[in-house]
Amino acid sequence: MPLEAPARIVSELTTRGYNAEREAVTQLAAAPNPTAALERVLEEVPDDALVVRTDHVQAVLSTNESADSTRGDAVGASSASESADPTPSVSTGADSARTSKSIDPSPVETGGSTAAARSVDPSKRSLEIVGDMTGQSTGTGEYGDFVSVFRDRLDRLGAKLRARINHRPASAIQSMPGGSEAGMVGLVNDIRSTASGHWLIELEDATGTFPWLVMKDREYVDLVDELLCDEVLAMEGTLADDSGIAFVDSMYFPDVPRTHEPSTADRHVQAALISDVHVGSEEFMVDAWNAFAEWLHTEQAQHVEYMLLAGDMVEGVGVYPNQDDELDIVDIYEQYEAFSEHLKKVPGDIEIVMIPGNHDAVRLAEPQPGFDEELREIMSAHDPRIVSNPSMVTLEGVSVLMYHGVSLDEVIAELPEEKASYDEPHKAMYHLLKKRHVAPQFGGHTRLAPEEKDYLIIDEVPDIFHTGHVHKLGFGKYHNVLAINSGCWQAQTDFQKSVNIDPDAGFAPIVDLNTLDVTVQKFS
Ligand code: D5M
Ligand code: FE
Ligand code: ZN
């Protein structure tokens, strides 16, 4: 008997204009002759139905004597799961030789059971969006807006530091007597090395600037190579005799308290954290995506009830020089239409939240508002929640800060290799958490939209920090915050080949919201 994979059923349904409940697909896949069952279901569904529901399928299957016939191993993707390990090594393999290193003794996919496989109870779910700035943009692009956004940054991040030190404004420090102890909270305005190998860091606040000297033999010198311009920090030190400079004794970052205790869900429920699908690129890995979508229909994935997409749904047009040479779909709207078709293969009941990335058709400057009405309409079939980059979303009590991740290029370029690299993207994310800002340095790769408010501040500590963009998979914990950079669904591009970027393509990190453990599924 031919095996009928759930994704093929979904695909067939969507080409005929139907969405389907996940359980309906599961039951169809388990039918003795799925193709025939599908045809009969489509004959029976009411003319105005848009969604094939479980009761439609049951009505058809109950008239079929052999509805208890066994179901084959329907999925072509191999999958391997492994518990949280910051350098996931996942097995490859292309056929039924599937491996599971998890301790769960149950087979990855059971045959025979029909109804139990994917039963979900949406009433147990809760999903709340915080900090979506879509429609809130006030920026007029005037210089004054830049002043406002930096003032807001200094006020709000500074508030996290002012309670920790005895601080004075820059203008007051300038007139304190030589030898005094001084403290200041400010934005990093400039970082320079002196002729004798010390470091001069200029801090700026609303009253002016003041230079702080980190001596090369002080313990804090190691922190200097982590500093980025425009981040907010505090310094304490001793004024030189002429009061023109202060010698740094201590440095403070807004940071995540070490005592942070993440919230967890009350039940065993999982979220797939992915990004960088790049539909429309010649390198979009359609087979890997289909395998992922098929897997989501299996019993092994039955607890995956949320999917977070951290930007770069499509390849876009004109994002990088010579990008056109590698486009499979040249029209941006057609790219989103194709993306929507791929999204329809994901079980209909999975809650999807998505933010844009630098390849998406929204403004490039951050924060990026969520997609406009026209694009929302194109992607409406799966009814995703479309929010700004960045946004915070709370899933059953677990807060997830979603940010596409363009600033990671900046952090990796500026910091020494051992502190931030493409091979360990989660460590670059730790620095953003420590600075409590998703894109501290203005200029370079990261474009900042002038706004009244700084939407890029990490105000509340998230339980999970999810980014993408660098196309490398990595995860780990920083002060109990789970940082995950998802990989991508795009094979190596010519540019990436030229600069030796070897992307982690076709992986889906799955987070258990009850334990915050991560398993990685590989589909390529
Ligand atoms: O970028 C994916 C990663 O590759 C990210 O680290 C930037 C880098 N990248 C890719 N293409 C280019 C070009 N043409 N110039 C500079 N950097 C590049 P993403 O934007 O998500 O495709
Ligand atoms: Fe990308
Ligand atoms: Zn990107």
UniProtKB/TrEMBL annotation:
GO terms for cellular component: DNA polymerase complex. GO terms for molecular function: DNA binding; DNA-directed DNA polymerase activity; single-stranded DNA 3'-5' DNA exonuclease activity. This is DNA polymerase II small subunit. Coiled coil: none annotated. HAMAP family: DNApol_II_A_arch (MF_00325). Belongs to the DNA polymerase delta/II small subunit family. Pfam families: DNA_pol_E_B (PF04042). Heterodimer of a large subunit and a small subunit. InterPro entries: DNA_pol_a/d/e_bsu, DNA_pol_delta/II_ssu, Metallo-depent_PP-like, Pol2_small_arc. Possesses two activities: a DNA synthesis (polymerase) and an exonucleolytic activity that degrades single-stranded DNA in the 3' to 5' direction. Has a template-primer preference which is characteristic of a replicative DNA polymerase.
